[in-house]
Amino acid sequence: MLLFQLHDMIKHNYEHGLYSQDYTSKSNNSNPSKIKDLKNLSDFQMGKHQAYEDYQISKKFRFYPKLPFVLLNLISGNRMQEVISFINGYNHEKHRLKNK
Fold first, then answer.
1. Which of 51, 74, 75, 80 has its CA 20 to 30 A from that of 34?
2. What is the domain partition of the chain in residue ranges?
3. C-alpha closest to that of 87 among 65, 72, 71, 55
């Protein structure tokens, strides 16, 4: 039960813009219009957007392990589907940018 509560809390905080790209708490001078725009994207699109930003900033990509979340998704009754969609979008954009 605690895993479900943790998932819901992280999802709620992420959707309300409480985490920056490096997953630290945001400062008070964050751009609210950017957060509003990202809120309307699907999880797959948010993953693609994150990969694009990572590439633009540092020409490097992050590694998001998909298999643990697939297993957790099976155990939790599809409660990790948003994370898996994000990872799928990130990996899709990563491969597209690498092959550019």
1. 80
2. 2-98
3. 65
Name the amino acid, one letter, at 41.
L
Q: What SS3 class is residue 19?
A: strand
pTM of the model: 0.66
Fill in the amino acid letter for 2: L
pLDDT band at residue 26, thresholds of 50, 70 and 90? Answer: very low
Q: How far apart are CA 45 and CA 86, in angstroms?
A: 7
Helix (H, G, I), strand (E, B) or coil at 14: helix
Helix ranges (H only) for the chain are 2-15, 32-39, 43-58, 67-76, 81-98
**In whole angstroms, what is the distance from residue 89 CA to residue 50 CA?**
9
